[in-house]
Amino acid sequence: MPNANKAQAGRHFLQIPGPTNVPDRVLRAMDRAMMDHRSADFGALTLRIMPRLQQIFDCAATVAMFPGSGHGAWEAAMSNTLNRGDKVLAFDNGQFAVSWNNVARSLGVEVELIPSDWRQPVDAAAAAARLAADANHDIKAVMVVHNETSTGVRNDIPVIRAAIDAANHPALFLVDAVSSLASMEYHHDKWGVDVTVCGSQKGLMLPPGIGFNAISDKALAASEKADMGRFQYDWKPVLTMSKGGYFPYTPPIALLYGLDEALDILLDEGLTNVYVRHTRLAEATRRAVRGWGLELYCADDAATSDTVTGILMPDGHSGDAFRRAALDNYNLSLGSGLGPLADKIFRIGHLGDLNELMLMGSLCGVEMALGDAGVPHQKGGVGAALAFLGEG
Ligand SMILES: Cc1ncc(COP(=O)(O)O)c(C=O)c1O
Asked: Does some domain include residue 19?
């Protein structure tokens, strides 16, 4: 019987793919008075953060931090490296890829698309062929979303890097790691990425509000010549001021207190353990989906995301009505379908500060809400996830 008590005692289950649950330790770290952002103490805080942040991106150079969201970090990546009228090669393999392409167009960048099947990873071979044909090097950058949050499909960044190298093409490689960083394996330097874009509200377990760019030497050199207008997101003053631990404007102080703590949590667990935990929780989720007899939106088993799972609604059933039942009856928030997938899929976010019991509680809520919403399914999903986790 669904819960008739809308007051809903107990905790809310936030199972969307970001913003994610903020650990109590991080909440407490942020619950502090403001400090003078030009003081020695503030400089020391940022200087303490930077080397650990570099470990998360796996990069040797300073990471640019901005007050802003992932959209701001997208804009920063392009406005610092490109000129108006430049051409970029991109994919349209999900709603976040589409949105990033739209940001590029709004900055005056010409976007050449490699058409994509949203249920599959992007076609690196098609990119290699297009780059090989670009003898004049008109294409200035290749843009790809590592983990497409709208679909639950993971793209293979080293394979796309290899495609650029195979064509011997000088294009910059811009990668969105907004919903993969600090949850799924990621290496800015080793993977030959020129700009990695991220935000604070997913694997870093913070509220939204900090945008990040990890920057290669090649991207930094491009920024010296890029004449696209920029101000807040200009790397130069940010990187110059960050040498002393400062910002060229008032920084998001509370979020930086939180970041300091979140980095300790992540590095105490160990990045490899963080990745293994996410893989395990994702696999349990996929077992549950198959146990319910529902279909994963990602059609390539080798490309399933470890941070978010997209699930197709059976024909004639509304994803939004089902999600409403989960929220109303069990205080469980699930991700909606975005863009053309609105109402057609729902998404379970399984990233950030999450453990097995939190995931199992959420999967129980999904199974119960499927019943409440009259969505045809089998009852074995929770059992299948449990059996997988019980294997050790
Ligand atoms: C992959 C990806 N890129 C970019 C964004 C945009 O980030 P924001 O909403 O912080 O602007 C998101 C947001 O969910 C995302 O998942």
From this structure: no
Which has the closest alpha carbon to 15: 291, 376, 365, 261? 365
Cβ–ligand 1 contact at 145 (below 6 Å)? yes
Pick the last residue of a domain from 267, 296, 316: 267
Position 39 pLDDT exceeds 90: yes
What is the model's pLDDT at position 60?
Answer: 98
Range of the domain at 248: 24-267
Same domain, 45 and 118: yes
Q: What is the atom index within ligand 1 of the atom nearest the CA of 148?
A: 1
Q: What is the pLDDT of residues 262-286, one digit of tens each?
A: 999 999 999 999 999 999 999 999 9
Biggest alpha carbon distance in the chain?
Answer: 66
CA 151 – ligand 1 centroid, Å: 13
Q: What is the pLDDT of residue 8?
A: 79
Q: What is the pLDDT of residue 5?
A: 61
- Ligand 1 atom with minimal separation from the 18 CA: 14
Nearest to 56 by CA among 243, 161, 203: 203
Q: 137-151: per-residue pLDDT in tens?
A: 999 999 999 999 999
Task: Provide the domain count of the chain.
Answer: 2
The pTM for the full model equals: 0.98
Q: What is the mean pLDDT of the chain?
A: 97
Residue 112 tokens read as 């050449």
**What does the pLDDT look like over 42-99, one tens digit per residue?**
999 999 999 999 999 999 999 999 999 999 999 999 999 999 999 999 999 999 999 9
Residues belonging to the chain: 392
Q: Whose CA is nearest to atom 9 of ligand 1?
A: 70
Q: Which of 245, 267, 289 marks a domain boundary?
A: 267
Residue 378 domain flag: yes
- Cβ 324 under 6 angstroms from ligand 1: no
Residue 252 forms part of a structural domain: yes
Does one domain contain both 295 and 229? no
Q: Which of 178, 184, 197, 306 to mutate to test the pocket of ligand 1 (most atoms within 8 A of CB)?
A: 178
Task: Report the CATH number at residue 60.
Answer: 3.40.640.10
CB 332 within 8 A of CB 372: no
Residues 258 and 291 in one domain: no
Test site for ligand 1: of 149, 183, 186, 305, most ligand atoms within 8 A of the Cβ: 149
Ligand 1 pocket check: which of 66, 74, 96, 143 to mutate, most ligand atoms within 8 Å of Cβ?
Answer: 96
